[in-house]
Structures are given as structure tokens and as C-alpha cells.
TrEMBL record:
Residues 93-512 form the Amidase domain. InterPro entries: Amidase, Amidase_dom, AS_sf. Signal peptide: none annotated. It comes from the Eukaryota. It comes from Aspergillus pseudoustus. This is Amidase signature domain-containing protein. Pfam families: Amidase.
């Protein structure tokens, strides 16, 4: 210890009284006879930090000789699609020897690191930063034979399920201009639904894959927590972080999930995931009968009965669930009262951990920290905070309030969240899958960025009613399109409706089988709500 103290530099900026000033912010003090010792300890800590910062960073090396980046550019208006769905366009050609994704085009949510490609994160709080490494999922889809053709717009710091909050521009629903594409994987869902890419890899922290999939009419799967490594993806809260695919069919989503799953030796969230390349989700669908004989499916009462669930959405999803009986499944109503606690539990966890992440205080995980992004954002200034979208400001305000006024609530919420997860697991001992509406309503109209906070946030409110709880519990959940219903404000505008299929932990194959069987026998594009029933066209 004495050797350590003797190494304190003469230029060390720590001054007597600094320890007292730090404690004063918490209303704490130290006695005068302790002050000198704590000053010495603090000065030694400062030098320790300076020594660490002087070491070179350690990030995975991007193999750009094998996978060069071609023509990286910000899109012109002529090249844009679905409003401003593209963040950057480029081409990275996949493995020429082919693979499970050979011939597929992929876009990446603009929170997924691609070395040499600027990343906006949907914001203009700070200038775009340029990663020096590739996310694990990037390398895996390239190894799987897919071509990556761009990054797609995401919502402002991923803090919205709308599609008008990105600083890069509004993303339009491909079925109706003026309506939300959902978020925060807004651009990717729109591009998939519009047929401009085959697959998007998105991030889901409360519904950000499933909500846009439902509103745009495509398939989106949030896998079991940890199945897909989050390495190289900007994080909000490691507890609720999930990455997964959006595609036009369940089979395409399954093939992508096969490719991107498995522990990568870096992200501790994926420690329990099977070895990379060991899953056979797509093969199981191809080899299966396309039927659901012996399957038992629960229609979750609480997922339908909330007052926010539009009656037309309820009817379409109820009828889609009944269709599963035609495929051999037993379908029956089931109740889990704890489901309704999901939004509150998610809000507490995501506000506290989200604030810590935004302020650079997150800790306790083993993984990759993208230090370039952190360095660009921190420290927050009054100017950068004022540029933030109201949803990001709200996260910080909420998180600081909770940590100040409810210092033990995070731990209590974790415990209750685990209890709710256990309740679901008990249900999955009886049922192979649960179904419910993905979102309570179809795509709302866009809000406006320049309105007051409540007006700006209103279009997103309630959309994660049935999705956020599974980010807390970690269960795999998928949205598939099951028909159209008229927009609430215009009966001439027809918008997609999504059905959420949820399975037990690590039981993705079951929900994929349910989704694949349904879409193999029923054409969602021909199912329209008509009066108090559905009709085929």
C-alpha cells in the first residue's frame, strides 16, 4: 500500500476538501481527523483511473479484408424509402460459399455496430459516432451468407414505439402514409414490410421488435433473454435487452435466429445460450407436418380484456387463435392475473437502469463497452439535454426520482419480476404457447416532435401493454400478422393487426411452429375486419 501511495503524481488534481464535497451531495460528512487520509486515498484512486485510461482499448477486430464495406453513404432523398427508413446505405457481401441466409438481404437497426459506418442512434444529441468493431450478429449473418445493405432508422435513443421521433426523420407505415410504423425498430420493420429487404435485425427492450412488426404487418421475434448476444449493440438495460429478427415469414425469421444465436464468449447475457450453430429452428419447420396436433394453446384473458384493446383487434386475434383448432391444436381460455403488472414492473426497471446507462453509471455486467459512443455522449450538458427528445428527458427525470425517493425499489421490482416469470413458467408446463394481441390498437397517426412532452409521447402510450412484461420475464415472444382492420380515424385506411405468440423459456421452436403453421394455412392479407366479424377477400 505504501508503494502505491508513493506513486501519487505531483500533478494529481485532487485537493483537500474534495472528499467532503462529494459526500455533501448525499448529505453525508466525514470527521476532520479522517479528512487527510481520505484525501490521500482519493488522490491514489485518481492516478489509478489515469493509468487505466492510458491503456489501449480492447475490442473485437473487424475482418474488413474478408468483409469490406462498399460505398458507405447517407441516403439522398431519392434513395430513401418509407419516409426516412434508411440511416446509411452500403454493401457488405456475405460469405461467397453460401450458408443458411445465402441470397438474403439484411438491414440492421441503427444501434448495431458496423465498423466504419456512422451510427446515429436516432438522435442528434451528439454527432454520429463511428464504431471500430462489428457486433456479433453482424459477423454471424455475413458468415451465414447474407448481404448487409444498410442500417435502418431507429427511434430517438430507442425511447419510443412511435416512428416520428428520430432526429433523422419520420418513418412511414408502408401501408398508409401518415401512420406509425412502430418503434423503436421503425425503419427496419417498414423496409421488410415494403419488400425492400428480406430481414432486419432489431433490438427489443419493451416491444421494439414486436410492436413495429405488428403495425407494419411482418414477423418479429424477441427470443429468450440471452439467446442472441448483445455484443456491439447499444444497450439500455441489460436485464431487458433482446436482439432478434424481423422478416416477412416465420421461416425466414427462424433461419436468421439459427444464425445469430449462441454465446459469443463476450456477452454474459448469452452464457446460457446453446452453442452457435447448434439450433435447428428452420429445419424443424421445413421437416414438420405444418400441423399442431397435440399442441395446447392458451388464449390469455388479461391480454384481451384491458380497456385499451380495440374491439376490432380483439376480434381479429380471437378468430386467428380459433383457426389454430383447424390445425389440430387444443385452444382454450386461460388467466394469469399477474400479467397486468407487466407495464409497471418494466417501467421501474427500465427507468432506473436506463438512467444509469445514459449517465454512464451502468455496471455489473461482463461484455463489450463501446467506449467511443460513451465518450461522445458524456458528460451531459444543458445544451445536449435540451436537444433530447422528451422521452429521453423523461427517462432521466424518472430514473433520478426513483433512485432518490425509492432507494430499494429496483431490487423489489426484480424479485416481483422473477415471481411473474415463475408464474408464466408454471403455465407453460400446461400449455405449449399463449396468444394475445401484440398491440392493443393498430398503427396510430404520427405525433409531432415540436409539441409539448405529453403530446409528443401520447402516440406511444399503451402500445407495449402486452409486450413489455416478456422483456421483464425473458420469455420468447413473436408477433405475426393475422389480418387488417380499418384505422380508427379513417375507415378507408386498412392497417395490419398482429397476434403475439409466447412460449416457455428457451422454447422458441414451439412458438415458431405455431406461427409457421398459422401462416402456412391462412393468408393474413386476405383477412379483413367487417362489422363484428372477419371476412376473407
Amino acid at each position: 500500500m505504501s508503494v502505491f501511495f508513493s506513486s501519487i503524481s505531483e500533478t494529481n488534481p485532487v485537493k483537500p476538501g474534495d472528499a467532503e464535497a462529494l459526500l455533501a451531495t448525499l448529505g453525508l460528512t466525514i470527521s476532520p481527523h479522517e479528512s487527510r487520509d481520505f484525501h490521500t486515498l482519493l488522490a491514489a484512486l485518481h492516478d489509478c483511473a489515469e493509468n487505466v485510461l492510458a491503456l489501449p482499448d480492447y475490442q473485437p477486430i473487424s475482418d474488413q479484408s474478408k468483409y469490406p464495406r462498399e460505398n458507405v453513404r447517407r441516403c439522398s432523398d431519392e434513395e430513401q424509402a418509407c419516409g426516412q427508413a434508411w440511416a446509411h446505405r452500403f454493401l457488405i457481401r456475405g460469405n461467397p460459399n453460401g450458408g443458411a441466409l445465402a441470397g438474403k438481404s439484411v438491414s440492421l437497426k441503427d444501434v448495431i455496430a458496423v465498423a466504419g459506418v456512422p451510427q446515429f442512434l436516432g438522435s442528434d444529441i451528439t454527432p454520429a459516432w463511428t464504431p471500430i468493431t462489428d457486433a456479433t450478429v453482424v459477423t454471424r449473418v455475413l458468415d451465414g451468407g447474407a448481404d448487409i445493405i444498410g442500417t435502418s432508422t431507429c427511434e430517438n435513443y430507442c425511447h419510443s414505439t412511435s416512428s416520428f421521433t428520430s432526429a433523422q426523420g419520420v418513418v412511414e407505415n408502408p401501408h398508409a402514409v401518415g401512420y406509425s410504423a412502430g418503434g423503436s425498430t421503425s425503419g427496419g420493420a417498414a423496409l421488410v414490410a415494403a419488400g425492400l429487404v428480406d430481414i432486419t435485425i432489431g433490438g427489443d427492450q419493451g416491444g421494439s421488435i414486436r410492436v413495429p412488426a405488428a403495425l407494419c404487418g411482418c414477423v418479429g421475434i424477441k427470443p429468450t433473454h440471452g439467446r442472441v448476444p448483445f455484443t456491439g449493440i447499444s444497450s439500455g438495460d441489460a436485464l431487458v435487452d433482446h436482439a432478434g429478427p424481423l422478416a416477412r415469414t416465420t421461416l425466414e425469421a427462424a433461419a436468421c435466429l439459427d444464425v445469430i444465436s449462441g454465446y459469443d464468449g463476450i456477452d454474459d447475457r448469452s452464457l446460457a445460450s446453446p452453442a452457435p450453430g447448434s439450433t435447428r429452428f428452420a429445419a424443424a419447420l421445413r421437416e414438420g407436418s405444418g400441423r399442431l396436433d397435440g399442441f395446447k394453446i392458451g388464449v390469455l384473458k388479461e391480454g384481451f380484456e384491458h380497456t385499451l384493446v380495440d374491439s376490432r383487434v380483439k376480434i381479429l386475434v380471437s378468430n386467428a387463435a380459433k383457426n389454430l383448432t383447424d390445425l389440430g391444436a387444443t385452444v382454450e381460455d386461460v388467466s394469469l392475473p399477474e400479467h397486468v403488472h407487466g407495464p409497471a414492473l418494466w417501467t421501474i426497471l427500465s427507468r432506473i437502469a436506463g438512467t444509469q446507462t445514459l449517465l454512464g453509471h451502468n455496471s455489473g455486467r461482463r461484455g463489450l463497452c463501446m467506449t467511443e459512443a460513451e465518450q461522445g455522449r458524456l458528460p451531459w450538458t444543458s445544451e445536449s439535454f435540451q436537444r433530447a427528445f422528451p422521452s429521453t428527458k423523461n427517462v432521466i427525470i424518472n430514473g433520478l426520482y426513483l433512485m432518490s425517493h425509492f432507494p430499494n425499489i429496483y431490487g423489489r421490482t426484480l424479485n416481483i419480476g422473477r415471481q411473474v416469470s415463475d408464474k408464466y413458467q408454471s403455465l407453460f408446463e400446461q400449455y405449449d404457447a399463449l396468444v394475445m394481441p401484440t398491440t392493443p390498437v393498430t398503427a396510430p397517426k404520427h405525433g409531432k416532435r415540436d409539441r409539448r412532452p405529453l403530446e409528443s409521447l401520447q402516440p406511444s402510450m399503451g402500445l407495449t401493454l402486452n409486450t413489455a412484461v416478456f422483456n421483464v420475464t425473458g420469455h420468447p415472444a413473436m408477433s405475426i400478422p393475422v389480418g387488417f382492420t380499418p384505422a380508427k380515424d379513417d375507415t378507408t385506411v386498412m392497417l395490419p393487426v398482429g397476434m403475439q405468440i409466447v412460449g416457455g423459456l428457451w422454447q422458441e421452436e414451439k412458438i415458431l411452429r405455431v406461427g409457421h403453421a398459422w401462416e402456412s394455412h391462412f393468408d393474413w392479407k386476405k383477412i379483413h375486419y367487417s362489422g363484428d366479424k372477419t371476412s376473407k377477400i
